[in-house]
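LOG
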Amino acid sequence: MNERLYKGEDLRLDRTGRVATLTLDRPPVNAFRTATWRELDAAVTAAAGDGAVSVLVLRSALDGMFSAGADIKEPAPSPDGAERRTTLTRGVLDAVHRAPFPVVAAVDGPALGGACALVAAADIRIAGPRATFGLPEINVGRCGGARYLMRHLGQATVRWLYFTGDTIDAERAERLGLVAWVAEDLDGDVERLAGRIAAKSPTALRVAKQSLNLVEWTDVAAGYETEQQFDLRLATHPDAAEAAAAFREKRLPHWLESPIP
């Protein structure tokens, strides 16, 4: 059953089972205005606050267009307004990165500028054949968004995109590791992936996401030790015993919504 969790002018958030879907819908190109970032903030907050969500999908309602990035037709804000907008944007990207569940970005067509940073903040990116990625801010005398791309792409590639405003296509993004794979059936692949994730223990997913975020920038030994500590906590949770029992009995597991000890 589909449940509407949030509705704005530029996007909406729905949940079906344990899968939440945030859909950008601002024709013709999903240009991000300040109001869009406010709605993104509200939608991601709503998803994070819903204990029934196990995975969040970011997608576009527009065929062949994820987002062209910033709405350059929006009047320039005052210096104070510009500072508030940068704080808002930074907060949204951080909220996606730190969401208590995996975030999957389904990219059909261009994902440029702030939209490119948004999908780079997600955990998994699946691209359609028409997807392109880039940071064109330099073309209008601006800059930004590179730090999130640096989580997935090397310095040489990021600096090339940053200083030229060039884009990379879906196949190159896959070769470079920005996207997990290129899907001919993007909606179908993402639906199946989200369903597979949502079938896992909700508690284990949330702990695993927290663990990955903590160890991302640590050295190997310290990071693995941290990961082991999270695993030891999960080992004492009822879902661990239930997963083993379900495997032995060849049945679907019944997860418990109980806190981590």
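LOG (cont.) second protein
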Amino acid sequence: MEHAGEKIISARIKRAMDLTYDFVNYIDEASLALRLPNLPSNSIGEQLWCIVGARESYLWAMHCGQWGGFSCSLKNPLAKDMVLSKLEDTSLGLMEFLQSAPLTHATLNFLLDLLEHEIQHHGQLIRYSYASKIGFPKTWRDRYTV
């Protein structure tokens, strides 16, 4: 990536991914099993499984130039060390791609879809955190004023 707009997009993707990592690093492992009370919901860990899968799937799409479907390699979304490892790996993979590949129209669309997806999950994680009273890391309090 070379242009100012490309650098901004790259920085926003990195910030979103760092925030996700910070949230998981902040909560305890038992919190990964929490669900929204009295509502149909999946667990925090399952939210994170979706984030990891989206990162992997969109990166694959950027490499191929077309959507290839959703898949996720995270086998246990309730194991904090596994979740953190996958978040770190996918963040590194995406940032390496962005530093080495040209920003095509297709890549830009996939990046914006990925950013929207990750931030949408941040909103969901905020609801989970409020409902379960687990709090937020400083980076989230600064970014989202929660």
